[in-house]
């Protein structure tokens, strides 16, 4: 698939995005191409939202017969290949490998009302319309499409908690709106839905559902600029007559109206109540001014994108700013404007002192997205951690994969611990919460589930106890344990620090010297045989979405320990070389493993730090080669421009870091390891008011190696920089060359 | 079964109930025998509560293998015949024919902990203990029992929202508490439960369940006077280790402790949050003083019982005050102390201006319980109606049978309308709510469900449309329509009044002159044949829990119309005579039909007004015979002292009215029809500060007829009194005689 419609988009910007220009600021949103990652397995959300907004208002399409290999690519509700739209829904996931949300479907329509979505390729058999890409326009904070079957132009924008629809009926033939609370996609099924026709211009309701989130509750309010002439309610296909309230598993409404001008709807969401949803509308979008709302949304995007002024060719800038844009899709705000939010313990909390967030895809995002936010977003980062501590208090352990007040327990390890520990070390936890944060880390680390009871006893998890994924769990536990170790050290809890130091080294138990990989172990101490380092069947080996080759590098917390295990720098580097030069063979592969360079899989998270491991062995130039090749091969300005799931922004955050030449290989030690920058200059406008610039000299497509580095004008021999130095502001200069300077940071003193 | 343990109870009062005496008020609670109605089909709650309190803390027992005819008699959780207790639960239903609640089971125990309830008659196979009636003590607001298997004395008392437990461990052998959120009885099944060990003395949690209430949510907090040494959590039988929070379908906790003195627990409930549950404890029972809490509870009971000072022999007083006590078991408070409550639309509301109530068994209680409360409880009555209006706003129609924020839609008709209309006429709806109240009545009356679409078109419901119960629905609709008519008239909505006047007379369509009964009609106008006026199969005739004989009188709103239909006074009275003199034959009877005098069934609601119908035909003396016979035959001071389900107080409220000699035969016209008083004197201490006394002269077991009546010393020729006259205060005197005065109120002028 080729991305051939850039012209259309550019024209769009000249009309709509001009608002950002008016503010006399550089416009960064012109470099956002929301289609990147919307084809193939990228699974990104396409539609209108604002940074970290709860509302992600966009089209939901027909997932062509659900199975893992077809419907999977509609996890977000949208795939670039579809040219059919069922309606517009207010919540989406972006880049996940499991589908949920797509709540509160609204569709403007003409003609005879339908109550059920059309099947694929048979749009006359149900509701929904054909569209064409030529008539679709996507920007940060704005979405537009012509619903051809109805001849209705639909435009969408959003604020944090409100979706704003504008429907221009080019023809009027029984014009109506369909509200379908029964609409479902992917894993999701509605359990209880409710609509109330409050007055001529107001509808409220809720939609509760069971899916990936076991018990998801969305309350909403719809305000219309156009009078409702009548509303007919249905439960599934059955008319619900006589009352202005309908409640059931699958409530729908056909709202008839006679628009004299475009129909505008403001749809407020709340995790708590319709009252709050109405208040959210009033607070965020009080006016009926769609253009102004769009401008506000795009200003919000520009305000976060400008936090990194990235100078490069337009194509690279587009890939970069789209990655930065995607880095702000989650976590999403979960507090109402009045401070109410829904706890994981199914009760409403009110806290005006912080904002609660949800959609924590932590196994992905602890690696780069959260570290990126510790640089760009002080207050948000604090709120993310405070949200996790609240979740800890409600569910007894830190979140794993949290979705709308539900712990989904998806993926392996204890991935909140690195985030909390990193925040602690970086001063992003308020003093009064430090002990609570430590309690949360320790309690979580001292659990019993999934082999953790072996870890607490300082031993390995035998495959008799855990027939699949034991190595993945153990390696992730060891990473989290380094976080616990860092936190204990930080708070001067020496006994605990000594204990967790042992734990973060438990990975060594799995190193099978005979094969040179981490391998599952029997209770009697022997390693699993037969052993195939390429074997990668989903949920059916000792790893998780990977094979032995991919997992053998998963010790970011103790790279020196891993180097030692493998026999020193040379052998370590040789093995890395072998890894990236092996055939791209995968035996019975999980579809999550993609973006291959040899056995290196950029398309999934466990390898994200691998290019930066070379620096630990004194060969950062080899890492530069790998990271440069990965960035240029697997990140393109194209709907298929992501090589795997965006994973709620982690893949994009990896690119944001890598493109500016640094990466938090160990996301709990405050170091960012150098790679191979793609830009001329990247200036970080830090939340403390300072700026930190990364300049490059002699950079170019072939000059991918760092020849030497200056910090604030002085020679800087290290292959990493610290968080502290970045936050102090200043200027880092990479002098690039086409040939590697193999001496740069080769010495142990200068390695990360 | 005979009630042979009155002695024990009397002794109990001398110790515990003395608190009421201390206040230098007459003690009425000594005349409460909570066992009345606890055997057979009475289904009353036995345990500790306060008037209209949310918490009803009492034992839950083993419903011996559930089927309609065995387990049915444990609908409340308790039956007098059981001498086994599984634990103490905090919510119960009283007198219903469907079982639910019994939430949050706590059991103090010794020995090896059990996680599952013992089966019937095998107490060693699970948790629970044998008890003996000799060691059980029940009073208003207090419950005590010796758990013999554990040698633990358990005492219970309550406030509105808090249950207070006191456990004296006579022996200590691994003393522990079991908290079983998975415990279920009857229709109920837990769907999601949660426990959090907050600190050494505090546990919080919730229990959500599906049962009669489709989605019931109870939040709670437990405060203990004794330190918890350890808590082990389980989900069903599986240990949940490592965390202090457990969540799942069936969470249980074994709390080990080492009591130096009796263990006391205060358990606060909330429909909204654990935070509110804690606040409810703090507000209602701040101290650790079980005796004081008991005194407070009993004072609250005395304060409502004293609203009618009823002078009669002790046995009659006991039946009377127990009936008055049972009249205060519901509706139950549903607002937290801070004004929060859970709406039927699944969201939390805060309203400090009124108190929300739940447990509205309206098909039962519109007949006598709500009218009784309009005399005794001005503020509560206002709150009941305001609660119903809130429910209307949330669910689009007035409640039918409302249970913990769930509309169960149980029974037939629109039984909230009479209550709202009666309240409107009696000045119990605030001015600013009058239009809302009318809107609620009219919207509810204009619905489409259950044949209502025929009624709105002023025609009958054909049996082709409703194969069962069409007559029952139609007659109840006509009753509600009289309420709508009264409300429209009150608000001077003349067009509506004319329309609803037609509707309340639609009952005439069902009168089959050939058989002299109301009979289901075909669409073509013919009546159902074959016809058997005795046929009474449950949910399988044109009636509802009754037969044609029983339903033929169900026109309280237009008795004169019914008399006319039957051919005048004489034929009407003859038919009533025939009715009560028929054999007590029932063909395929519903178990709800009981308490027979001929075909008159006191044990179910549709006949409750029948004895008073004689007065409408000028023969109140015949009604006196029937009501006297019913009261003395079917209301006894005995566990089996109710002849059918108490129906959340309706059966008891019938007795309260009938025993003082008046009854609201048409509960929407402000008239109370005279019957046959049982007392020497009954003084109503009215909420407006006035008193209304009903005195009798020459009353006695044989002097059951009203010979003549005086009101405030003057001759009073009417066979009814109005609400207005009662509320003005004054004195009504019934002169009784052994022979009927057939002239009394025989004249049309003096009939109701």
UniProtKB/TrEMBL annotation, chains A, B:
Signal peptide bounds: 1-23
Domain Glycosyl hydrolase family: from-to ranges: 276-737
Entries under InterPro entries matching the protein: 6-hairpin_glycosidase_sf, GH-type_carb-bd, GH92_a_mannosidase_put, GH92_N, Glyco_hydro_92, PNGase
Keyword Transport: no
TM region(s), chain numbering: none
Cofactor: Ca(2+)
One annotated GO molecular function: hydrolase activity
Alphabetized UniProt keyword annotations: Calcium, Hydrolase, Signal
Gene3D superfamilies found in the cross-reference section: 2.70.98.10, alpha-1,2-mannosidase, alpha-1,2-mannosidases domains, GH92 mannosidase domain
Domain Glycosyl hydrolase family 92 N-terminal: 31-270
Oligomeric and partner information: Monomer.
UniProt-recorded name of the protein: GH92 family glycosyl hydrolase
Source organism: Sphingobacterium thermophilum
